[in-house]
Amino acid sequence: MIFNTDFYHSLGLADVRRKVMDGERLSMDDGRALFNCPEPLAVGALANEVRRRMHGDKAFFVANRHINYTNVCVNACSFCAYQREDDEQEGAFVLTAQDALDKLAASPVAPREVHIVGGCHPKLPLSYFEEMLSAIRSQYPDTVLKCFTAVEIGHFAKLEGVSIEEALKRLQAAGLDMLPGGGAEIFAPDVREQVCPRKLNGDEWLDVHRKAHAMGMKTNCTMLFGHIESIDDRLDHLIRLRELQDEHGGFVCFIPLPFLTENSALTIDNPLTGLEKLKTIAISRLMLDNVPHIKAYWVMLGVKEAQAALKFGADDFDGTVVEEKIGHGAGASTTQGMTREEIRGMIRGCGFTPVERDSYFNAVEG
Ligand code: SF4
Predict the structure, then answer these.
(1) Taking the model in full, what pTM does it have?
(2) Does residue 75 have its Cβ closer than 6 Å to ligand 1?
(3) Residue 306 in contact with residue 298, Cβ under 8 Å?
(4) Is domain 56-357 in CATH 3.40.190.10, yes or no?
(5) Where are the domains of the chain?
(6) If you take atom 1 of ligand 1, which residue's CA is the nearest one?
(7) Mind listing the pLDDT tens digit for each residue in 260-313?
(8) Dist CA 30 CA 141 (whole Å)
């Protein structure tokens, strides 16, 4: 039940509330008013209103399996606790296609979706990725292969000396279905210069997704928040995603990723509180009026905050995951994976109806 008009008036959010109730698009100033609101529950109630309008009491999850193929990466982002400089550094690894198949064969859950991401290795040719995709595709013909962030696609194309379109086409021919949303971080150039100076810039990240969408490929999108970015940087990021979504509608799901401080070389004075994370998730739901789904990524949020996020605008709980190295390298203290029944229990525990989905959010029988 949404709080009454007088309450929002007292918070300076009467106009924002009216726009939300009327389904009108929110502006940058509306977003600022939401971030400035001292009452996170009021912001959460608006986001919950929108998520219930879009999805009722459904909360989605997927039987998925993450595979990280290498941690060797040329980028050295300041927040990354996963990267190794080269193959010789302690802990460095590169999987073969057979290693990936072995991981899938050992998976306790038959994956409906395989999520493959890794570092930007200085030597792996495009054929390495084509072979890995083809090997998985031949054994798992119906599994959706959601692989390689825009940053990786840009790196593969540069290393191979081909265009982004050519790299995407070759990977698609080998079995790639969809791109995950990682690597977006925060688009603001001055922040990017400090946290990930060697990565694709914001325009380039958006352009990889634009090209994928133009080919008919669906993708996800993310925002890493709670480090050195400003509130305006977060809003600018969300609005730029919204503008791209207006072009082709290719984004399926937005994943707000809270910055984890534990093992990062990037030190910050004021780590995020739980309520700040929930408020940002809620504002993401409200600003991204054209992105159908908002994920409560339990790996990074923790299971309890992810449950709370379902009341703050999120409608997806991600999935079984099985093994995850990047968030856990950054200090995520969550388990490596969950069973379907555990996820269903988590969702029911906060009053929603669990719906197992495929990568495109079609309901499936588990
Ligand atoms: S965040 Fe990704 S691109 Fe950046 S250093 Fe880590 S693995 Fe490399």
Answers:
(1) 0.95
(2) yes
(3) yes
(4) no
(5) 56-357
(6) 80
(7) 877 677 888 888 999 999 999 999 999 999 999 999 999 889 999 999 999 999
(8) 46
